[in-house]
User: Which sequence fits this backbone?
């Protein structure tokens, strides 16, 4: 195993996200399907660093979560803020990320 020089930001949708998703056209969003998303970011050491990495990343994380359900940004909520992000998502950061696989990581670019 190898420790990866990144932190993991774990994002789990809360009820306001579910409500938004279910108000959008398309199939209903089942809250039972709310699986965490994990994003790797700059390595952090302290609790203050963890807060800072979320404050620096919230806009991107919010967009990624919205895009995961509705690809058209025109259908996304117009009002998005750090406060609303925290109302819509449970966010946790861990500084310990370990690669348990023996083969190398592969990157896929969008």
Assistant:
């Amino acid at each position: 195993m190898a420790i990866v020089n990144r932190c993991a930001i774990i994002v789990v949708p809360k009820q306001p996200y579910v409500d938004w998703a279910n108000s959008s056209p398309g199939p209903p969003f089942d809250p039972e399907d709310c699986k965490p998303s994990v994003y790797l970011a700059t390595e952090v050491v302290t609790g203050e660093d963890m807060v800072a990495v979320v404050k620096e990343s919230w806009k991107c994380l919010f967009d990624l979560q919205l895009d995961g359900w509705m690809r058209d940004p025109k259908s996304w909520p117009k009002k998005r803020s750090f406060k609303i992000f925290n109302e819509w998502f449970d966010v946790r950061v861990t500084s310990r990320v370990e690669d348990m696989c023996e083969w190398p990581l592969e990157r896929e670019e969008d």
Remarks:
- Helices lie at 15-23, 47-69, 82-88.
